[in-house]
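Re: weekly structure request thread

Next one in the queue (479 aa):
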Amino acid sequence: MNDLSDRSGDALKAASDTTDPEKNRFSARAMRYGRVGANVGGVAARMAGRRLFGLDSEAEKEAAALAMALGGLKGPIMKVAQLLATIPDALPPEYAEALGKLQSHAPPMGRGFVRRRMAAELGPDWESKFASFEYEAAASASLGQVHRAIAHDGRSLAVKLQYPDMRSAVEADLVQLGMLFSVHRRMRPAVETSEALKELSERLREELDYHREACMTRLYGGIFADDLRVRVPEVLPELSTDRLLTMTWLEGKKLLEYKKHPLADRNAIARAMFRAWWYPFSHYGVIHGDPHLGNYTVFEDGEGRASGINLLDYGCMRTFAPKFIQGVVDLYNGLLHDDRALVVHAYETWGFAGLSDELIDVLNIWARFIYGPMLDDRVRTIADDVDPGMYGRKEAFRVHQALRDKGPVTIPREFVFMDRAAIGLGGVFLHLGAELNFHDLFNEALGGVDVAVIARRQQDAFTQAGVPLPEAEAVTTSS
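Done, posted below.
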């Protein structure tokens, strides 16, 4: 554990050893990371000791202590903690539940910070590049904050400004994450998380690259250019850098404001959400990997009815080779028609290896939970009488219990965000209380999948938007 603490300190050194006034502003943040690392290490050591000697009676207290220690960061790791809570046995259930309740938030930085950061990105005359600019942040999150502005052509803008030293902060977070996984590996886990750690690390680092986010935004703008239900902001490249992203501001209301609206409104929002997630996946091999409620707003028609959604924040995206999409379709059809050979083939396409019959049965518990509403050809809610905060917890517990005897199983990298996004999307449908035929919606989105067609379409769209293809062999293997 001392080795992990030392590495945590090394990762923070760049954030604290500086005379730059802008970076000194964040020295307190860096020191907080160090203190939290020590707290996490202490809790983790107690966890490991109790599990080693079979003393699980105080697991809930330790879970609360772990959540409190990590909660002090209020940084990028909160996204990771909430994501881990959706993967069966990626962490012990009591810890997953505690971490899942944490909220990602950071207090906005003040006027001096904004002036320095904007000058660093756009030059000392940056303010003249806008007709107006609001110094007070309209929103703040773990990596940066958003300001409203007006372009010289009159368009309303959203200016997303990254905090300084976020690379050091993210690397420190990844050390904490490695610490958690290291402790968990000593507890006879049902899930081997080495691939999950690689995936989370890569995705979290990608979120720091606003140039990549701009490309992803353009990709989605092309995908939904003619869609009346999904709106995507337009990027202004002349006012953007790799740490500053300027887009058009999309007016809309918070999604949860519609919880008590007529069912027709809630269903319209849910249909748009379903299309916004499944259509890019099935046609282009890309998903919006962070279905957080704050990443959607609702726009209305001229008579005040919900018409569609504004899809925001393209930092957390996941791309897939076309063969993975075929695996999703194969698993669905295998479950629908009780074709076990097709189910096994789908798992192998995803990257699961060495699966016994018992492990396949366990994985099917989770698969039937995820696919359940789409297998059921009727109008229904996504899950009956389930609290949104508990969505998937019962099934995750069953998988955990079964895998402790039959596992461990290694989770393929591609599964991590696919699972997270599916759970998050289901949670949104639960909040809305939408009642739809998800079977019809799924078959409309994924019916007639042709891997070769997807590969060509993906290559054209990704190249035009400046997005790297997910795998070098993705096109050649499918053409």
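Confidence is low (pLDDT under 50) at residues 1-26, 51-55, 472-479. The longest helix spans residues 27-52.
Next request, please.
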